[in-house]
Amino acid sequence: MSTAIRDPWTPTSGYRPGQLPNQERLRRRFTRWTLGMSVLNVTLSVGLVFLLTELSEDWWFSGALIYIPQTPLLIPSICLMFCSLVWHMRSMLLNVTSFGLILFCLCGVRFSMKPLNEVVDSPQNVTVVTCNVQDFQPNFGKVLREIARVKPDIIALQEAFRPPQLLFDSLEGWHWHHDHEFWVGSRWPLRAVGMNYTRPYDRPTVLKVEIDAPSGPLLLSSVHLMTARRGLTDLSVGSMLSGKGPASVDNHSFLRFEEAAQSREFVASSDASLPHIVVGDFNMPTTSNIFRENFGDLTNAFDEAGIGFGYTAPCRPVRFWLPRVPWLRIDHILSSHHWEAVRCKTGEFNGSNHRLVSAVLKLRPQNSSPP
Predict the structure, then answer these.
(1) How far apart are the two ends of the chain, measured CA to CA in Å?
(2) Structural domain containing residue 41
(3) pLDDT, the chain, mean
(4) How many CB atoms sit inside 10 A of residue 75's CB?
(5) Is 107 exposed, middle or buried (0-12, 13-18, 19+ CB in 10 A)?
(6) Rounded Cα distance, 135 and 130, in Å
(7) Which residues partner with 216 through β-bridges?
(8) What CATH number does residue 224 fall under?
(9) How far apart are CA 113 and CA 135, in angstroms?
(10) CA-CA distance, 202 to 204, in Å (whole number)?
């Protein structure tokens, strides 16, 4: 005697026509929720990218957002990707898109293949290191160890007000120039071209030197621009309600733009035919419109030849963030069209509040067109 196998999901199993079991109702509910949240997530991600890259420091709110950690913005996309795997695979594309937008556009992650290539010794190559040493505190010895590991040809230090004897002992035989907070050292002879003083904050912002490299003379400008903290520290619930906080942010954004514009004018005032390297603490990520409008035409070494986040500051403990883990890439190595970046990386030690940045730059052939 044969027995028919009953389908447990059919009405004969005890469910009235049109009625679904609890598990199926829950599955459909989670499927709709996953799809709806995925659509919302990608919409918010596109809006954030537009807000923080296009408006940036033109508006006080977006100008404040670009200086907070961006990596937590990846969490919703990561969680929703797991939800898509379980309940709605077709929404995976939406969440992968959101993840990519945040990762590359806001977090600034780069994956260049150039560092995988071997760097061949050549007179056309120059290895550059830059670091804001915060008056050589708290542990300049760590910075020196990393510099020795890189084996640079040129070193540019900012906030180097009182260079210790340790610096000169470790770079015996080098040529160097020190003026105010800027210290530049080179394996080859160098001379000072000039110092730029800007009006908005009445302070020096650029030291320019000319270096007699084996491949010919080159220019190097060491830059230190005003920090955005001048306006952001005025933000509080009360100041936002009264309007004083946003007004302070907007005012300092204007002053910082003027300072950056005057600094760039000084950088560009030299012979344009000479290869030029512009390094230092710009106190701005690449998403800042102040940075893009004044220095965006220069080649960013990390964008061209870096791997990872490349964050350089702040390295001091902050109460709302992981201890000694930087979340901003505000120290940069830029170059004129004469150069090609073949390698760029940031330091690993917290010998200063800023981690150093190093890059290997290669002169392009004279008959090659600008990138």
Answers:
(1) 82
(2) 11-106
(3) 91
(4) 10
(5) buried
(6) 14
(7) 213
(8) 3.60.10.10
(9) 36
(10) 7
